[in-house]
Design brief:
The chain is of the alpha+beta class. The protein has a domain at about 55-135: K Homology domain, type 1 (Ribosomal Protein S8, Chain: A, domain 1, 2-Layer Sandwich). Helices cover about 30% and strands about 10% of the residues. The chain contains seven helices and three strands. The chain has helices at about 5-15, 45-50, 65-70, 70-80, 110-120, 125-130, 130-135; strands spanning about 55-60, 85-90, 95-100. It has a three-stranded antiparallel β-sheet. Strand 2 and strand 3 (about 95-100) form a beta hairpin. The longest helix is centred in the last third of the chain and has 14 residues, at about 110-120. The mean pLDDT is about 80. Keywords: RNA-binding.
């Protein structure tokens, strides 16, 4: 089976049929159609609380009753007009009562107002306590000192040499 040069040249000039398997294209992944994100409107404060009205009651100590009467309009105005919270003074119980309304824009306004009134009851000026309404994450914390030993008599030790 020797091939002559004429055969080789002829073979080179004519195309040779070859069994070539066509490379299969990678299978297409099935296109998964996702549902569009729902576009919900924001809930109002009234809807967040399931339509229930929320209350806060702040008791008024006897020594702050007169200052509260004098500063009532300064306390009432930012709470009612700006924070959209109902406020009243219960004279029989000596408490300031706060209540959400349907148009209260934020759920946290009720707690801010309660902190504002409580700060006034602790002795803060209204101008200073208003910062509790204006700023987020600002709190007033107080404590009562009862475990202090009272000193009686001469507390200075005797001096020697003098």
């Amino acid at each position: 089976m020797q091939n002559s040069s004429a055969e080789i040249g002829a073979a080179a000039s004519t195309p040779i049929a070859m069994d070539v398997e066509a490379a299969a294209a990678p299978p297409k992944k099935p296109t998964i159609l996702f549902a569009q994100k729902p576009n919900f409107r924001p809930l109002s404060a009234h809807e967040i609380s399931d339509g229930q009205i929320q209350f806060r009651k702040i008791s008024v100590p006897p020594h702050r009753y007169t200052p509260l009467k004098k500063a009532w309009l300064e306390i009432y105005t930012p709470i009612y007009d700006e924070m959209k919270i109902d406020i009243r003074m219960n004279l029989m119980a000596r408490r300031v009562e706060l209540k959400t309304r349907r148009d209260t824009p934020d759920v946290s306004n009720l707690q801010k107002c309660a902190d504002f009134v409580h700060a006034f009851m602790l002795g803060f000026d209204v101008i200073d306590a208003v910062a509790l309404l204006r700023m987020d994450e600002l709190y007033v914390e107080s404590f009562e000192i009862k475990d202090v030993k009272t000193l009686k008599g001469n507390t200075c030790p005797e001096r020697s040499g003098g």
